Structure prediction request, 298 residues.
Amino acid sequence: MKVRRRDFLKLGAATAGMVVGATAGPTPVRAADPNRERCKAMLFDATRCIGCRACQTACRDGFGMSPTRDGDELYDQPTGLSTTCPCIIQEYRSEDGEEWSFIKRQCMHCLDPGCASACLVNALERTPDGAVVYDVDKCIGCRYCMIACPFDVPTFEYDKPVPSIRKCTFCFVTSEGNVPRCVARCPTAAMQFGDRAELLREARSRIHEEPDRYVDHIYGEHEAGGTAALYLAGVSFDKLGFPANLSDRPIPDLTKTFLNSVPLVIILWAAFGTGLHRFVQRREAGLEEVAEEVETGP
Prediction:
């Protein structure tokens, strides 16, 4: 049976139409979760941080990723989030030296996490307590979570034969005292851990009582739909490396239609590839038949 060129083009057009139909149309409206803000959270006050990096060391200890020592020198000291450092203290200093601050970078544990929405196999999910956790046994290494995160948090073990994603897990569930290791280790109480609503009230109180000390902004209260990692600082957050002008809308609201179409596109593309392969095989078989007829003659 021969497949005509016209039939092949129809197959391609039908496949393209199905893809367009799958990706077009209005974005579905998600029902708001009334309990999503009733979770645990961490408040980091940058004006109280002294840059000792005890929190960073505690985090790496918990993950079994402590830096190694060669005599009196430590090496493997990252300057940003990495697969061996899920949280890090960074320093900001203006060119004239008038402004400076330490800031803690880690997973923001979004109330509506884009990484979990992007994951095709539910390897990332938000727990009722507010932590966004990762299941290495489910992960297929697609790295869509890295693309979906507006804070550029998840990192990938490119150097390992069986790689996985690394990020802060908000380890209060597995830590002593039911607080994250970083919070427990901080010597200046730059971090507090508790109910999100109470921490927001505490943050607003500090800004009201000391307006000259703080920027009038609680970072994470509304960004990307709200996060469980909340920040106070005396320097504007865009200078501290946080995404500026981030929408208050949850990331899944902006990406859900596209992300829902990804598995379908993969399936349709595979079907199209299979059809193309069969078309080529049948065409070659037809050419062989013609060649045989020419050789044998009438």
The first helix runs from residue 5 to 23. The two ends are 22 Å apart (CA to CA).
